[in-house]
Design a protein that fits this description.
Length: 67
Amino acid sequence: MARGVAHKGDLNPPKGALVFWDLAAPYGHVGVATGDGNFWATSVSGAIGKRALPYFNSYLGWAYPNF
């Protein structure tokens, strides 16, 4: 968000985008978008799983990976 590259609140991230939540202070949570309104992440029903956005509370939005 601070770098100006996030798409705040957007529930339609492209495939491969990183999606973010403000869940566990101070770290938050991240998943990988599938491009069809879903994402893969840990802690989905207690395991690694695929679900529709926003799924968790406190969805922040998405950004392209910048590695």
